[in-house]
Amino acid sequence: MLQVTTMVRLGVKESRAPLVQQYCLFVVSLLVFSPTPVVTYGFTWHNYQTSDLDALQVLWGAWKTSTPQPESNLAGWNSSQEYPCSQEITENKYPNWRGVQCITDISCFITNNSTGDQNCSSLIVGLSLESASITGILPPDIGNISTLTTLELIGNPNLGGTLPTTLNNTNLFILDLHDNGFYGEIPNFGYFEWPLTLDLSGNKFNGSFPLPQIRSMVFLQKLKLGRNHFEGGIPERAFENMTQLVQLDLSNNTFNGTLPTLSMIKNLQILDLSSNKFTGTLPDLRSMHSLQSVNLSRNGLTGSVLLSSSFNRSENNSLSVLDLSHNQLTTDLSSWNKLELGSLQEVYLDNNLINGTLYISRLSALGLLNKKSTNSTGLLSVLSLTNNSISNVVYDANNVEDITTVIRLQGNPFCDSPDSNDGTRCFCKQICFNLGAMKDSNRKVVIIAVAISVTSVLILMISVAALLYRNRRYKRYLQLQVQQKFEEFEVKPTIFPYSQLRNATRDFHPDLKLGEGAFGAVYKGILPNGNVVAVKQLFAKTTQSIDEFLNEVVLLTGMKHRNLVNLKGCCIREQQRLLVYEYVDNYDVDQVLLAGANKTLLSWPVRLKICVGVARGLHYLHALAHPRIIHRDIKASNILLAKNYDTKIADFGLALLFPDEQSYILTKHIAGTKGYLAPEYASFGQLSDKVDVFSFGVLCLEIVSGRRNIDEKYPPDEMYLSKWAWDLHRRDKLMDLVDPHMSLQDEEKLEVHRLINIALLCIQNEPEQRPSMERVVAMLQGESEAEVVALKPGNDEHYLESIRLFAVGKGGLGTVKEEGESSFLDSSRRGGGRSEDDCSGAAVLELSEIRVR
């Protein structure tokens, strides 16, 4: 029988080549690489150590029943299959086991046995399973595979338990277990010196810094323990024997005390100690010439930022990212007179105590800023100094537009002055253009002289006149339509010229794009009077008629409430439809609280304020506006935050008018965002104001917990926030839901518990059991109490034993009145209709009817 024997890969990715020098020495002692397959005649027998095969069978037994879709996640794994690698794939044979890597005895590749069979000794050297949905624990039998050099179990959040100490029995060079569900303390492996990579980030390990466990790992080049629950101080000389470290990540734990000494790690390239509680002064990193990225943000470090002495061009020529934001650093910016940054490209010094005058003109003269005119590259692309105490900025007023380096100074006294010059617009709002130059350019007239015949001139003049006349008639027709519609409903929105909005957004430049939804993109714009607006450009593919668009403008113009984004006006130009809103300059809840570079630790009073603001805005839409409106897309990214964290509900792209006489309507198409959809709407299209109530409840849980409602990085029982909240409620552990980074006073804990209870009332499966937003506002304002009694299993389904809402005080739950709100239109003027079929009191509504975009 003709057999083609090939080498089995070792499981070491090419990108890891610089990290596996000792690993390669170990492998070369077992193998000789062959550039092409070797053809042998006869049958090849692969002999494995019995302990290795038994260990794999134990792993298969531990995972096969709990891991979903094992036929793909653990493809090839089988109790009937004897060997994991180098199988003949025929009708009667199984394929190799997914993720298992083997090597074969060298004699099988250098012996030319053309007449008979041969026996080959095979060793299991690697196990690599990424995003395989493994569920269960890592059995201690893994240590019985003594020849194991690579163990990569990555992105399996349901793989948990404690780490087995038997790993010490292996010859691991790479131990990568990041983004799983392991917990407890890291075991003491004893004398475990071989690892080159130890990545345990994104788990739930706790305890103090594991120095005894890693002390002997003198060859370690990657140490990543970020996103765990470690605490306490780190010994000053914890890394004195780890001189070969290339990457050190201890971020997102609660380490405290002073930073350890790192100067002995000469080849360190990536240093991330962010989001801990380190104190003391900045470390001296001048001797670490290989640094490429340094992130010490979100600690309590103090000292003076003297970049000219810390990162000198001649000493440090590779550092590109420096993030020291959210500390207590001070400096006099005049010391940056002779700043030398080497190849540093991004500097983040936000939320510190930096003061004085920033000399941008000096930075420009030193060649540290990118400019359009010179097309310079390799210099600073970002200089962020937000929320400091910078009082003045010196810059060249004529060259603001040429600076392409993003300079951010929001939150400094310099930005408190009125937006009256090019500098404050550029450095405080990142809208960089020379207003004076634009005015001059508008005055220029270009005259083109063309020698043509008199007849050609006449033909050209007649054609142009006809075109202008046609355009003028069309524009006049549009103006009459707009005027008639607005007079009919007695509203007066501003009609913006298209050219004005085009200039305000720099021709809808991508740098000014704030976001994009299902119906259009939103851009930041600055009007000639200095007012900042948000311009929503609806996609041209929409089939919406002018009359439908104007109906929406009329509707939105009449919605006036402090917790709703205010519509300032609109613009119509041929197929272009634009809506102009007030500009909200503090991002949204998703960016500030849940994710992104702008994530901030918000206090409990701020979070409660956000919830109350959203509740008041929804109560206005559901009960006080005429006609009533269902938003249908309440989610964290649609809740904007103004100064002082005042809340604004935005993006009415999926909103629907709701008939006053109907309790619910049926829709033929479901729209919204996964994780926020009420069950009756997602399953049956049944739409009522209780759909928004459900979304509000999910949003409140996100605000309390500081995480998204669906997050695959968590264990399966915590992946879905709403499900986890109900589970914690049944176990009387609701406070486990609270953001662990938020510190609470005793009285605040009661308020948090109460808000979670209100949120649980809002996310009940049955819409009629959810409170109205009127009741929610009353409960949040302390006018009513809510009690949620534990869920109990029944007929394989969960049901509420009881839900009780009761009023406190004499006033009970009357109408919640708010300031600063108004509405218009009586119900007889409602835009959009409903079907004649009544379907048990519910109207069947086509989504082609009026929607607020």
Automatic annotation (TrEMBL):
TM region(s), chain numbering: 23-43, 445-469
Compartments, as annotated in UniProt: Membrane
GO CC annotation, single: membrane
Keywords of the record: ATP-binding, Glycoprotein, Kinase, Leucine-rich repeat, Membrane, Nucleotide-binding, Repeat, Serine/threonine-protein kinase, Signal, Transferase, Transmembrane, Transmembrane helix
Listed Basic and acidic residues bias regions: 827-837
Protein kinase domain mapped to chain residues: 508-789
Membrane topology qualifier: Single-pass type I membrane protein
GO molecular function list: ATP binding; protein serine/threonine kinase activity
Chain positions covered by the region annotation Disordered: 819-840
InterPro entries assigned: Kinase-like_dom_sf, Leu-rich_rpt, LRR_dom_sf, LRR_Rcpt-Like_S/T_Kinase, Prot_kinase_dom, Protein_kinase_ATP_BS, Ser-Thr/Tyr_kinase_cat_dom, Ser/Thr_kinase_AS
Annotated positions binding ATP: 536
Cited PANTHER family: LEUCINE-RICH REPEAT-CONTAINING PROTEIN DDB_G0281931-RELATED (PTHR48006), OS08G0203700 PROTEIN (PTHR48006:SF34)
Protein name stated in the entry: Protein kinase domain-containing protein
